[in-house]
Amino acid sequence: MPAAFELSEVSVMRPGKLLLADVSWTVDENERWVVLGPNGAGKTTLLQIIGASMHPTVGTVDILGERLGQVDLSELRTRIGHTSTKVAERIPPAESVRDVVLSAAYAVTGRWNEEYDEHDHARAEQIMGEWGIAPLAGRTFGTLSEGERKRVLIARALMTDPELLLLDEPGAGLDLGAREDLLASLETLAHDDDSPALVMVSHHVEEIPIGFTHVLLLRDGKVVAQGPIDEALTADNLSRTFGQRIQLDDDGGRYAARRAGYGRRAVRPADTGENA
Ligand SMILES: Nc1ncnc2c1ncn2[C@@H]1O[C@H](COP(=O)(O)OP(=O)(O)OP(=O)(O)O)[C@@H](O)[C@H]1O
């Protein structure tokens, strides 16, 4: 299986700060990865590297068969779908949902005088249908709820049939129902053989969709563990990643984590005020 991307001994340095330290990571095109780590671990920086938005200070990066430093980054970026709060901030609030999705065909935010053909319109309608946002097509982006925005951004990222899809915290800010809806959609995407290679950044194991195959754990710019999810996502590795003893529960591929030993007191009927 060809690699979607390969990072070899990558470091990113900024004055007084090592953002990524000696990261080597290969993702094959049929794999679905979750990147987990605490605030400031370097997750967004890592996504910027594999999204062809940043060069490493040291190391080599091959993305979709192209070596960073030897390729036009803007051309390479057209083959990569990337959702993040930064992308969301660039979208004019008055833009209609239909145009937010459609304008991905020209890699622009904010429709101007671009000419879209029948295929573009058909693809936008199809993808809006698949992501449950067709009823919102005429609404403006600025009036959407956080959950609706997240779905629109993913639909936009998929509009151009990318070979690699990067999702930076798609579950952030969602209520329980919206998160579960999104997870169900991401589970479908993960199981679809035609889907691109997927990399999702998250802070929470509860946000890992079923069907995601691999995990990379990051702390202080360094990889703590990486590999198939059932091998690398362990309580020990999470404890090292988050710097405290973590208990991990796995319920059929849905995970839950909390500090070990916290909340041991059983809630008995007396606690709830109900009779036994
Ligand atoms: N240009 C820069 N100069 C110095 N430090 C930087 C620069 N850009 C980012 N950082 C720092 O690098 C660290 C990693 O940032 P990054 O945004 O990649 O972390 P993250 O894991 O995505 O964090 P979060 O989960 O909070 O979004 C942070 O401590 C951040 O403050």
From TrEMBL:
GO MF term set: ATP binding; ATP hydrolysis activity
Gene3D superfamilies, sorted: P-loop containing nucleotide triphosphate hydrolases (3.40.50.300)
Q: Tell me the PROSITE patterns matching this sequence.
A: ABC_TRANSPORTER_2
Task: List the Pfam families.
Answer: ABC_tran (PF00005)
Matching SMART domains: AAA
Coiled-coil stretches are none
Q: Where is the ABC transporter domain?
A: 5-245
Print the keywords alphabetically: ATP-binding, Nucleotide-binding
Report the protein name in the record: ABC transporter ATP-binding protein
Species for this entry = Aeromicrobium endophyticum
